[in-house]
Amino acid sequence: MSHPSRQTKRSVRDHGGRIDAAVNRYGGKRDDWIDLSTGINPVPYAVPDFTARDWNTLPDETAQSALTEAARSFWSVPDGADILAAPGASALIARIPALVPAARVRITTPTYNEHAAAFTANGWHVVQDGPAMARVLVNPNNPDGRIWQDADADSDLTVIDESFCDVTPETSLVRLADQPGRIVLKSFGKFWGLAGLRLGFAIAAPETIARLSEMLGPWPVSGPALRTGAVALRDTGWASRTRTRLRRDAKRLDDILTAGGAQIAGGTDLFRLYSVDDAAAWQDRLARHHVWSRIFPYSHTLLRLGLPPPEGWHRLADAV
Questions:
Q1: For residue 146, what are the CA distances in angstroms to 99, 109, 315?
Q2: How far apart are CA 157 and CA 98, in angstroms?
Q3: Model confidence over 268-308: pLDDT tens digits?
Q4: Cα–Cα distance for residue pair 119/103, rounded to 1 Å
Q5: End-to-end CA separation in angstroms for the chain
Q6: Quick check: helix, strand or coil at residue 29?
Q7: How far is CA 67 from the centre of its chain?
Q8: Looking at the predicted structure, is the pLDDT value of residue 107 above 60?
Q9: How many Å separate Cα 191 from the centre of its chain?
Q10: pLDDT tens digit string along 9-40?
């Protein structure tokens, strides 16, 4: 029998967040910090008032159907595709590689590293180019904001991760979702700023959605998440106003960073990627002002920043 303290810890991949480690190193209290290491909307959607029923009953089919129909309308999902709500897009990313026998999967880097990790864990061989049974397209790409086209979805199994696509819906490839082997992923936490709700979606042909649903099991999404998602996805006015604000704030962030010597290297309206002389030095300087940023183990010059909350702009400007 193994002692709990001696159990092997789960390996931790490189991600944004981990603000607690920054606080431990640089001091201050958690509430003193501005976390710009993620691409989450800092002005989240206002959640509805929950009732006791939202918490003490199992999610019912009515609530699930309401969310599905709201998602179908918001994302203009093809009639031939089905939608599956899940406890975050990450839950779907972890299960998709098991849909077909392992072979070669093409994942062009740099990109979100959970896809390669999930395929590798399921016995797949990850390649950068060349023919492959499966392909992953993060659209727009994280961290550089690259936009993919219909012709890029060229493998038998193509995963199109659109976690950051709600800022530019015109670039979405959701129109491909009714084609065999095409799976479009959507994240609720980024654009709506509610990452803690843990809500994501897979959009694909009915047989693919049926298999993913079996993998997730019954009631994968909580009642409060179902209700919040349905309300938010129907609020198209909020979405339009938010896109306008995010576009303006992304430009403001670019102005501050370029004035400090950084060069724009890409990104989206939820996060920006910069080229700097020494990314670690930039992260250290910002952290001493209790502003947390994102750097990457594969680059000494790339720095990524999300958008600050309304009260954080002046501190960021002072830190830069």
A1: 27, 11, 30
A2: 11
A3: 999 999 999 999 999 999 999 999 999 999 999 999 999 99
A4: 9
A5: 52
A6: coil
A7: 19
A8: yes
A9: 9
A10: 444 456 555 788 899 999 999 889 999 999 99
pTM higher than 0.70 for the full model?
A: yes
- SS3 category, 101: coil
What does the buried/exposed string (b/e) look like for 138-163 if buried means 16 or more CB atoms within 10 Å of the residue's CB?
A: bbbbbbbbbbbeeebbebebbbbbbb
Q: pLDDT digit string (tens) for 206-252?
A: 999 999 999 999 999 999 999 999 999 999 999 999 999 999 999 99
User: What are the structural domains, with CATH classification, of the chain?
Assistant: 8-44+238-319 (3.90.1150.10), 58-234 (3.40.640.10)
Tokens 């206002």, located at residue: 46
For 75: left if phi > 0, alpha if psi spans -120 to 50, otherwise beta; the answer is alpha
Residue 175 three-state SS: helix
Strand 182-187 vs strand 200-204: parallel, antiparallel, or unpaired? Answer: antiparallel
Provide the sign of the torsion angle of the four alpha carbons 237, 239, 244, 245, taken in this order: positive
CB 305, CB 280: distance < 8 Å: no
- What does the pLDDT read at residue 18? 76
Closest by alpha carbon to 132, among 111, 160, 103?
103
How many whole angstroms separate alpha carbon 66 and alpha carbon 232?
A: 11
Tell me the per-residue pLDDT of 110-131, one tens digit each, with 9 for 90 and over: 999 999 999 999 999 999 999 9
Query: How much is the mean pLDDT over the chain?
Result: 94
